Amino acid sequence: MKVLVVGKGGREHALCWSIAKSPIVDQVFCAPGNGGIGLNAANIVVKDDDIASLVAWAKQNAIDLVVPGPEAPLVAGITDRMTEAGIPCFGPTQAAAQLEASKAFTKEVLDRAGVPTARWERFDDLVKASAHIETIGGPLVVKADGLAAGKGVTIAMTVDEAVEASAAAMDERIFGEAGATVVIEEFLEGEEASFHVLTDGETILPLATSQDHKRVGDGDTGPNTGGMGAYSPAPAMTPELEAFALEKMIRPTIEAMEAAGAPFRGVLYGGLMLTADGPKLLEYNVRFGDPECQALLMRLKSDIVPALLAATDNELHHVDLRWWDKASMTVVMAANGYPGAYDKGSEIKGLDRAGALDDVKVFHAGTTRDGDAWRATGGRVLGVTALGDTVAAAHTRAYEAVDRIDWPGGFCRRDIGWRAL
What we know:
With 421 residues, the protein is α+β, with helices and mostly antiparallel strands. 30% of the residues lie in helices and 27% in strands. Strands 11, 14, 17, 19, 22 and 23 form a six-stranded antiparallel beta sheet that branches. A four-stranded parallel beta sheet has the order 3-2-1-4. A four-stranded antiparallel beta sheet has the order 5-8-6-7, sandwiched between helices. Strand 9 and strand 10 form a beta hairpin.
């Protein structure tokens, strides 16, 4: 087979690496990829949001399977366009991708399906939003309705903070059109957990459990980011909680999407909050989490490609996935200043020394090759991923690899996995 992965981050590097190991795959391409992805796949110069060019390239090169990594191509309809061209594409249709494209859409689906979630209201008028905030009082959560690259959520502890966040989204348009409408939710307290499943619209295949760290600083402090690290398995996701999430959250959602005429196929990733009143669903993503994907694929014992194909062909009931009986951990190294303004072009040394450790893989999220040198090109730049017999052992090995990397222009959290440890 020839497989095209769409995207350019650490999640896409992990997908390319995993897919390239499949005995039924001859070639892996990535559009547009990055310097490090070029170690495991052939990068092609097509942007991941240029759907027409991606379809044309896939047809010209007889691609057998397309695997979009990020949400934007899915929301733009890449699955619909590839399917129309006769090319299997792993991921939801544009209609089904609304589960990530619109927070309000998702909340409406959850309410129809009876899925436990935070109380919410939708606003496209700042005066009405402000009045609602004054009535409810803090703390509250303010979310841009549309896609905001993981940065559209503000946890506002006071009324003033909530009003400011709403104004920044709706009036100042700091998230562009994604913030023209906001969803204002009750603040939920508890521990967060991630639950990924593969589905073909009927069969649901849970993946290993994982947990990520969104805040930029140690101790879960500072602003939210796209993710500063992840580990698997997550002790917080007990077998009982997995069963609850599957039967009371995931399955009712998939049934509701089918009833709405937008059947969901692909990977559905639920963000859960484990509250004193029981689990609540925070939001859905319609693709693998980043960096959860890196941690999950490091533990995957099975060939991923038959599972991706089965999800596109309504054959997932034939598939079983096996996992290494080990823990994995991904530590994200980011450019100084992230998630705010950050410098690009700083040199990264020691990647070979880090990758030479047993059970370690360094996934590249934002790098380029400059002769013999590696340089940083993004905010989140590396995902240093390790296996260990326990979460503690994976933690030790991951940070041993981090400490072999010489990059004064970057930083990482030193406490990934602290809840499990």
